[in-house]
Amino acid sequence: MSGLLELIDVQTYYGNIQALKDITLTVGEGEIITLIGANGAGKSTTLMSISGIVPPRAGDILFMGRRLGGVSPNEIVALGISQVPEGRRIFPYLTVTENLDMGAFLRKDQAGVKKDMEHIFALFPILAERRNQPGGTLSGGEQQMLAISRALMARPRLLLLDEPSLGLAPIYVRLIFDIIRRINREDGTTIFLVEQNANMALKVAHRGYVMETGRIVMADTAENLRNDEGVKRAYLGA
Ligand code: ATP
């Protein structure tokens, strides 16, 4: 199957430590794909390999058929891939609006940027209310909304989300997953979601991959994974 994004036998290292061992996976246009797994399995490394922050040592990553080997992280953003890193790293001293502007730094279409900002404010009314407030004064959940919104300002075709629900109050967890669904359905953005909250992730995703110690050990529809006894025991707390 050919997809919007394809990883073929990707191997990524930190010095001598091999974090990814022959990762092969596909993300189709319009899909929400989730990657689940325990701490240290290699989920974040998979995202950072795609966004070019930790380039793979071997294997291929193809986006719209184009090989990403040797392409810089900025160029990868310009090609249409935006990443929301773990830990909602917003700019605390910049206002909400300024944070959103930073997400659009590669864009030249000022009218489009303004329109997209209004769209973001419609998706997240709380950010509209706080548009002149420094990012650092927002609550954890609001900062996560801002981090996702900033990534959306680049108009990505593929959005990479690293543990968006981590450490958030349950009400924000529901809101964030709801927004993920809407971004996908209403805007048609393809989403690659890394999560430890496998329960929620497998509810919003179409398909999923399970990762253990640097390898993909299962690939199936989200529904089949949700009903799998091994997955239930290991990741769904059943
Ligand atoms: P978590 O949910 O804890 O973020 P993860 O599945 O995202 O886990 P990674 O962060 O990708 O896992 O880590 C994969 C492996 O690579 C782990 O063994 C980890 O210790 C190692 N690793 C990650 N970052 C580095 C680094 N900067 N230097 C050395 N080893 C690293």
Short structural description:
The protein is an alpha/beta fold and 238 residues long. The protein is 39% helix and 26% strand. The two termini are 33 Å apart.
What do these coordinates show?
It is a single chain. It is built from 10 helices and 10 strands. By secondary structure, the protein is of the alpha/beta class. It has one domain (5-235): P-loop containing nucleotide triphosphate hydrolases (Rossmann fold). The strands form 2 sheets. The chain has a 6-stranded mixed beta sheet, with helices on both faces. A hairpin with a 2-residue loop joins strand 9 and strand 10. The chain starts with a strand and ends with a helix. 43% of the residues are buried. The model has no long low-confidence stretch (mean pLDDT 93). Bound molecules: adenosine-5'-triphosphate. Adenosine-5'-triphosphate (ATP) binds next to strand 2 and helix 1. The site of adenosine-5'-triphosphate (ATP) has 12 residues, from strand 2 and helix 1.
